[in-house]
Amino acid sequence: MVNIKVIEYDHIYYKEWLMTPQEKETEMMKSQITKELRLLFKANMKIFDWDIPENDDRQSAELIIDVIQKALDELKSEVKEGKYDEY
Description:
The protein is α+β, with helices and mostly antiparallel strands.
């Protein structure tokens, strides 16, 4: 959640975006997290190609995405349950 702070300077009001430390860290890590997720996906695509003769790449991609999405949903549920409150 981004908070906005209004600052008056020389009778002009400016909005200053205030971010929590977690939001700042996420912004810095966003590209790295995305890169790592793509690497996970691509590594599994290669494994499907190696292990399955005449692999249907689109079907494999969809199945891999489904597994990743289920894992993300599970993690999201664990976070809501408070499992990582004291990590």
